[in-house]
User: Which sequence fits this backbone?
């Protein structure tokens, strides 16, 4: 999900640190520039425009201080942090959240909401099959664990991948209207063509997903399950999962499709979460297969519904990311249109991959 931009972006103010020491009863020994969960430096011009993070060293070790995005409501903040806290005690993949003196998971300082979470050093995404396999496997465990909380009083919102894609497309339309006068007439036509085609494709594949019983099963999904929110061990297993800002209730295919796209189709620019390109014409089959086998390693008959939805669900995610790439200037409008024109072929390729995987499983 693309987050609204905070035009008041800046550094965490120095006066916050004294306040933190008081409300958490800690001694901050060192403040470090935020280097990303994958030990990669994030330069100021590449930082999030929605929240600020920094690493602090205290007696208990290294922790990440994060300002909660301004658009998340207080009640939802409590639900998100409570879920992370519960998951930490279940499997440890969600880093521990430090409690304040009054046993709160977050604190309000100078009009902003903050929380402190353990910072687990680890390796980053290296386009490795074993990493992709464990990413899929741990996602399956995540869904099994979060399903236990779906009827809890945490009160998460429901949000589908189709709603996400429509929301990003609307944001692109608003963005285009603001920039329109600064674009050439030819570019204006290309943007309008892209918006029209993307809208038609979202409607088409939404209809397909609904006929395949999208929403029949529901869990609490992560909502942003990508390599930049994960740390890996030297053995390429998952050490930790971060950034639960987009958790919501939806069909498990929400995370599965996002994961398959983010691990086998997206190539990121070095040291950032921005996109280099999307391998729509040649999805990385080995990584796709590894993630798929990780998630469905304990296959059951109910998984057929999920597997049948994968090609169409991945296209919905790709449409969202095509729009996001345009909004962030990750690529030009001509490239985005090229992506759209190849989505049908992409659907056929993914369907072919799935057929081979099913055949292979039947033989074995």
Assistant:
């Amino acid at each position: 999900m693309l987050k609204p931009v905070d035009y008041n972006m800046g550094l965490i103010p120095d006066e916050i640190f004294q306040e933190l020491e008081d409300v958490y009863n800690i001694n901050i020994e060192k403040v470090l520039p935020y280097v990303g969960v994958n030990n990669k430096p994030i330069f100021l011009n590449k930082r999030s425009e929605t929240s600020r993070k920094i690493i602090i060293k205290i007696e208990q070790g290294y922790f990440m201080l994060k300002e909660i995005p301004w658009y998340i409501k207080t009640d939802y903040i409590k639900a998100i942090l409570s879920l992370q806290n519960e998951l930490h005690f279940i499997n440890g993949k969600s880093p521990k959240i430090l409690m304040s003196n009054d046993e709160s998971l977050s604190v309000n300082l100078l009009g902003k909401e903050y929380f402190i979470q353990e910072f687990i050093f680890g390796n980053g995404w290296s386009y490795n099959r074993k990493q992709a396999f464990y990413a899929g496997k741990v996602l399956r465990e995540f869904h099994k664990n979060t399903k236990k909380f779906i009827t809890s009083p945490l009160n998460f919102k429901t949000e589908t991948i189709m709603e996400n894609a429509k929301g990003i497309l609307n944001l692109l339309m608003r963005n285009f209207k603001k920039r329109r006068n600064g674009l050439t007439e030819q570019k204006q036509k290309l943007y309008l063509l892209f918006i029209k085609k993307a809208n038609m494709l979202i409607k088409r594949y939404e209809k397909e997903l609904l006929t395949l019983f999208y929403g029949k099963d529901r869990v609490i999904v992560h909502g942003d399950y990508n390599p930049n929110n994960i740390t890996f061990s030297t053995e390429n297993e998952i050490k930790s999962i971060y950034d639960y800002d987009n958790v919501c209730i939806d069909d498990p295919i929400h995370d599965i499709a996002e994961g398959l796209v983010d691990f086998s189709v997206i190539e990121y620019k070095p040291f950032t979460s921005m996109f280099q390109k999307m391998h729509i014409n040649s999805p990385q089959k080995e990584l796709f297969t590894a993630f798929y086998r990780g998630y469905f390693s304990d296959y059951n008959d109910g998984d057929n519904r999920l597997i049948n939805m994968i090609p169409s669900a991945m296209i919905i995610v790709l449409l969202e990311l095509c729009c996001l790439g345009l909004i962030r200037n990750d690529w030009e409008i001509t490239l985005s249109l090229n992506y759209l024109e190849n989505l049908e072929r992409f659907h056929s390729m993914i369907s072919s991959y799935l057929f081979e995987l099913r055949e292979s499983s039947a033989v074995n």
The first strand starts at residue 30 and ends at 32. Confidence is low (pLDDT under 50) at residues 1-9, 41-49.
